Amino acid sequence: MTRKIIRDGQTAEEIAAVLRAVIIAGKHPPETMLFQEELAERFQTSRMPIRESLKILEREGLVLLPANRSAVVAPLDVESFVEINEMRAVAEPLALRHAIPELTNRLIAQAEAIQDDAEQSDIVEFAALNRAFHMTLLGPCARPRLLSHIASLNHLSQRYFHTVAVELEYSASSHKEHRALLAACAARDAASACAILQDHIEAASRLMEDALRAKEAAPSSARTEGRLQ
Amino acid sequence: MTRKIIRDGQTAEEIAAVLRAVIIAGKHPPETMLFQEELAERFQTSRMPIRESLKILEREGLVLLPANRSAVVAPLDVESFVEINEMRAVAEPLALRHAIPELTNRLIAQAEAIQDDAEQSDIVEFAALNRAFHMTLLGPCARPRLLSHIASLNHLSQRYFHTVAVELEYSASSHKEHRALLAACAARDAASACAILQDHIEAASRLMEDALRAKEAAPSSARTEGRLQ
DNA sequence: CTAGAATTATCTGGATACAGATTTGGCAAT
DNA sequence: ATTGCCAAATCTGTATCCAGATAATTCTAG
């Protein structure tokens, strides 16, 4: 409503954060065209901060910016999903190895609480809580670059949850693995915690991949393409 | 000479590429201030593409962009170097595992040629050739996101070579490890190639880390700070 | 002569304006 | 009726302009 007059040099980041959340939540399906003018109107600003925020999201892999054409929400394809999760499977254990010595009981309890919520939530909430669970345990690793890398990957990965129906067996096994991971963290057993985490990411990724391929073979949902809104 | 008038929407990327090369080559030491106006003059353009290119470099970790202040070349600190190489040590073997089945004899010969050059070059050339060697072997992995991630890390890592004198023992062991890696690739032995690569990155990183810490303890060279140029 | 405050200069961040590229719609020809 | 081409509308990319913030300089007071 009230316009921002403060030039804090962070407006682009803030806009990017909103757009990121919207795209991750699946509000704008893949191939949705994002016009600078429309976004400028929506965020009550000029096109300039919009352009910067789109560049940010492009580098994160959430949108594509073809030259002289409108930005489009990045497509969801199985190959990308596999690649993203392969990267998670090596990056997250690295972070966890350094995080475990710094993990407080308070943080572990916090992760446990998130997992409690996750186990009785629908698929949309689950996707966000799943990411929050992972980031909570990895947070104390004291490696900013690694953490932001992992955060990006998790954002990308999270988008795919909206495309496949809840796989009960997926959730069930995922929950079990999260509980095992919590136990290893509580015991400060870095080696087994890292192994569990890697296995968990690979197993979850494989289940999701199967679901995605199945869906791809039988494309049920009508494509919701077109302009923004 | 004649400037580009075509608006191909890639000027920012091109400027970023030049600045990236300059910073990596150590032409602009850490803490060098990069003024938008000066850069605009230098590249014969307005400040707008400059701003975008600086944003690109910021996200890559090569420059810092404090709010309402001039961009500065990112500092070189040991912690960052360690973090960057930890990330390389898990990301590159992942890429190599997928690259090996796709590696042609031609590519291996190309990597061999790069290594031949590297073994009789000074430290500045060595840094660039070292990166080229790694990227050549990882190129065919068919994972664009992973490759650009690794390329970024290698750019960041390469900067540190200019800060320490040539460590003869570093080069010697590095060369030996590169040759072993080539042999494993030629044999298409993915498992041992990945192991060699990981060990190589970790060993090289450790040697460099020691050199950096030694230098940090005895800061000999006078700081070359100040404005651009 | 030094320290602090106010004023000036400089630089960045955002808005507006303009030029080029792409796409869309209509018109004509087959 | 369909296809190819031309023109108008739309949208992106760059330049210029203005406002706010930071840094530098000067002036004044002790």
Give the helix/strand class of chain A: mainly alpha
Please trace the helix and strand order of chain A, writing H or E for each element.
HEHHEEHHHHHH
In angstroms, what separates the terminal alpha carbons of chain A? 20 Å
Q: Per DSSP, what share of the residues of chain A sits in E-state strands of 2 or more residues?
A: under 5%
Number of domains of chain A: 2
Provide the spatial order of strands within the biggest beta sheet of chain A: 1-3-2
CATH class membership of the largest domain in chain A: Mainly Alpha
Could you explain the architecture of this structure?
The structure is a homodimer of 229-residue chains. With 229 residues, chain A is mainly alpha-helical. Chain A is globular and about 55 Å long. Chain A has helices spanning 11-24, 36-42, 47-60, 78-99, 105-118, 123-138, 144-159, 168-186, 190-217, and strands spanning 33-34, 63-64, 71-73. The first copy, chain A, has a three-stranded antiparallel beta sheet with strand order 1-3-2.
